[in-house]
Amino acid sequence: xxxxxxxxxxxxxxxxxxxxxxxxxxxxxxxxxxxxxxxxxxxxxxxxxxxxxxxxxxxxxxxxxxxxxxxxxxxxxxxxxxxxxxxxxxxxxxxxxxxxxxxxxxxxxxxxxxxxxxxxxxxxxxxxxxxxxxxxxxxxxxxxxxxxxxxxxxxxxxxxxxxxxxxxxxxxxxxxxxxxxxxxxxxxxxxxxxxxxxxxxxxxxxxxxxxxxxxxxxxxxxxxxxxxxxxxxxxxxxxxxxxxxxxxxxxxxxxxxxxxxxxxxxxxxxxxxxxxxxxxxxxxxxxxxxxxxxxxxxxxxxxxxxxxxxxxxxxxxxxxxxxxxxxxxxxxxxx
Length: 335
Ligand code: UT7
Fold this sequence. Notes:
This protein has 335 residues and is of the alpha/beta class. The chain is built from eleven helices and 13 strands.
């Protein structure tokens, strides 16, 4: 049977290391508040004024993953690029990345699924591989959030959370009788909550155009109803976890590692306790990276691979929830 295997990983974050203390010069906040409410201690942001886009962050992570896979970019059958912060509005960042890699004529698909972009990407790649449409795919989650964060007290709830970074994986089709690779995936959306986390501009709807009034209303900055998203996360992540376990016909104890989206350490801790997952079986790195949206899960997975914390036969669950509302998960077994 054809299996979808993650052959290699890579990650990249910009050089600028921003601590909570650094943020206190822009807004009324404190290290204590941020650590207590989110778990975040520091994050990486692109230098102010630097001429880069999400595709440039993605490029750095991708060349590491491609080199580790031993693949040249021309060999790829598909590039899937998950981001909510594309270089420009049109075209997508996929073609920018494709061009920088020199992956001549390789199709490049952008997906706009925010915090669950990587999870959607895994399901899409798995479908391409299992249908025989592709054998070698580069999947990247990359975000350049900092350029559109407002560093003011008014917008401090989003300013202290979001961060820049990229994580990439090379997915390969392999023939194997063993039940390895992507075992199952489940995705959900609930558009009733589409206003809970949004970036309103640029938009075409309602006849809106970028105008001094729209800028004054700060509609180009992210808006987040944090409490609503928080509640939705702690209630829906356990449900989709049960769905995934049942679909894979395994128990929670059979998981060797859970890699959740890194939106808030308190969300992940509440979820872990509710599911009875032991501390050592969940990996969090939001403390050092902040919330890099589509990049959180591949960055965490790359770190675990680098630390050699995952071994052949380990069963892993990737899970997350975010803007849309979208949520879901993937069960993956290490080949
Ligand atoms: O990956 C995308 C998905 N996003 C999420 O999953 C985010 C989920 N939500 C959250 O992480 C949390 O709701 C936040 C961290 C955003 C906010 O934490 P909270 O415990 O829900 O705080 P809150 O919004 O209820 O605000 C409590 C207080 C408020 O002050 P008052 O009204 O009680 O005087 C806020 O103005 O904390 C204030 N506050 C801050 N204080 C210092 C909000 N942000 C900050 C800040 N520093 N950065």
